[in-house]
Structure formats: C-alpha cells, structure tokens
Amino acid sequence: MTKTTAWLLGSILAVAGLATGFNSLYNDNSSTLKFAFITQSAFDCNNVTDVPKTECEALVALYDSTDGDNWTNNKNWKQSNEVCTWKGITCNNGSINSVRLDNNNLVGTIPAQIGNINTLRILSLYYNQLSGPIPKDIAKLEILENLNLGNNQLSGPIPKELSNLAHLQSLGLFGNKLTGGIPKELWKLTSLKNLHLTLNELWGSIPKELGNLTQLESLQLGSNNLAGTIPVELSKLSKLTQLGLYGNRLSGIIPKEFGNLIQLKYLVLSKNKLFGAIPNELGNLNQLEQLSIYENTFCGKIPESFSNLSDLSLLSLDGNQLLVEVYTDTFRKWMGDKGFKFGSQDSRLCEAYCGDNVCQASEMNKMGETTCAVDCKVVETWEPQTPTKTTGKDGLDGGKLINNK
Questions:
Q1: pLDDT of 255 higher than 50
Q2: Across 96-110, 318-332, 369-383, which has the greatest mean pLDDT?
Q3: I need a surface site. Which of 43, 93, 97, 145 has the fewest CB within 10 A?
Q4: pTM for this one?
Q5: 135 near 149, Cβ under 8 Å?
Q6: Measured over all CA atoms, what is the biggest interatomic distance in the chain, rounded to whole angstroms?
Q7: Cβ contacts of residue 389 below 8 Å, gap of 6+?
Q8: How far is 58 from 65, CA to CA, in rounded Å?
Q9: What residues contact 295, with CB distance under 8 A and at least 6 apart?
Q10: Rounded distance between C-alpha atoms, residue 156 and residue 388, angstroms
C-alpha cells in the first residue's frame, strides 16, 4: 500500500467515525451538542418567498433576542421559507401586518429591527418576560394601530417618539416597570381609543394635554406614583367609558365638570389623597355602573343626585369622612333598592357641610379657608349591606366594591 493510498483510507475512516459519533450523540439525546451542530447553518432570509427580506430579518432578530428556541410555540420559525406560516404572523399583499405572540414565553429584549416592518398594524407581545427599554424604533411603524406590550418587565421611560404613531388606536403598556412621566406629546395620538398605563412606576402629574384625545374611550393610569390634581381638561373626553386613576398620590377635588362625561360607565378614583365634597354633578352620569372612591378624604354629604344612577351596581365610598344627614324618602328608597342601608357607627365626624366649599380632611371643621364653627359629634354614617372584595378586569379597580347583583 502506497503512502497516498494509506492517507486516503485513513481520511475516509476518520470521516465515517465522525458521522458515527454524531449519530451516537443524537441517539443519546445529547441536546447541548445537537443544538451546537444544528445551529451551524443560520436561517437565510434571502430564501424567503412571501415577504421582503428586511421584514424577515426583523422577525429573526426578534426570535434570536427573545430566546425563540424556548418559546411555548415557535412553529415554523426559522424552519419554513414562508414567513406568513410562522406562529403568530399574519400577512396581507406580500407584507407582514400582524405579530401576535402573547403569552408565549418570550424572554429577553425587543430588538430595534422591529421598526423595519413598516407595514405592521398590530404588534402584541402581551404577557411574556420581556425586559429592557421600549425601543424608540417602534415609532417608525407609521401605520401601527394596536401596540400591546402589557404584563412584561419593560423598564425605562415611555418614549415620547410613540407620539408619531398617528394611526394608533390602542396603547397598552400596563404591568411593567416603566418610570418617568407620562409624555405630554401623547396628545398627538388623535386616533387613540385606549390608553392603558396601569401598574407601572410612573411619576409626575397627569398631563392636561391628554384632554385633547377626543376619541379616547378608556383611560387607565392606576397603580402608579402620579401626583398633583386631576386635570379638568379630562372632562373634554366625551367618549370616555372607563376612567381609572386609583392607587396614586393624586390630591385636590373631583372636577365638577366630570358630570359632562355622560358615556362613563366606570369611574375609579380610590386610594388617593383626594378631598372635598363629592360633586353633585356626578349624578348626571346615568350610564355609570361602577363608582369607587374609597380610601380618600372626601367629606360632606353623599349627593342625593346619586339616585339618578339607575345602572349603578358597584359602589365604594368607605374610608372617607362622609355623612348621612336627613335625606329624602326618594334617596333612601334608592339606597334600599340598590341593596345599601344606613347604619350607626361609632365614628366622630364633623356634621357640618359648608355649601360648595371644599373640606380639608385633616381638620374636618375646616372648609378650604372657611372655618365652620360647628362641633363634631357621633352621627349616623353610611355603610354597605354586603361589602365584598372584587377584582375588576382590564385594569379596573379591584378593591372594596359593593356588588348587589
């Protein structure tokens, strides 16, 4: 045997041995080495047949940055050259228009390349384990209508660049670790119907500019660290059906102009530092189903105009300094029909109610700058008949609500 023949024979045997070794590893379920072997050939977006290469590359970047191999469902991702068959992807006219990967165990960060899918109308990555900042590049998705990044671990500020999304109808960033203020630039989102920023670590005041979002139907800003007063400009949101500002550090009074929000069904202002009298004008909200203002420092009478609230089924007023004085039979009948009752509690409250002046809870006989020279004594107080603890949906208040249904 010549040296050349021997060398060729040895090479053939070596290659055969290597193949046998990989077969053995595969059969022995050695996942680490199998993974290393399989990923030697990266997915090539030049071979896709149904969407532009840039859109494919954006999805591959999302997959790689969020541990796609361990998603709950990654069917066809980086396996099929037809991107529109990948789990959670829908297309229209040769472009991607929807990415929905909710509750799919995405772990990692949102890549900047996501902004390259400029035909995207829906981006929904709700209820995963995404972290890091919200990329400013999302603002390049000019026709985006629905952005839902709720219930993740995103941090940092809300990018003011999101105000460039002129077609956005729903913005859901709730349940994250976002900090900083609410960008006043969001008023530019004139098509917005739902703004949900509940359960973050946002601070500062509520921008009065939000009152320009005239298409808004649901505004949820609860469970943050917002302070200051409730902007009266919110009363211009004539299509609003849900307003949740609970669990903040808001102070001041409820603007009486809220009585103009006649489409409102849910008004939840509990667990703040609001004070003063409950506006009689709230009795104009004849579609109201939930009213929760518990754990503030409201004082004075329960407005008898509440008897106009025929649809009201959930009411929470406890934890305030409200009085039950001599009410009309009509109001007492309304309370009875709703399953509420008057009762006596050993609670020392100021019996006085000084007209339209706001009362300061720290001194119950002080109404703004007007002092009421009236003694405080034990008086009849309001209490629910069957208080329950209820968790509302869509970020609505879950507290001590009265359910008489």
A1: yes
A2: 96-110
A3: 93
A4: 0.77
A5: no
A6: 121
A7: 398, 399, 400, 401
A8: 11
A9: 270, 271, 272, 318, 319, 320, 399
A10: 36
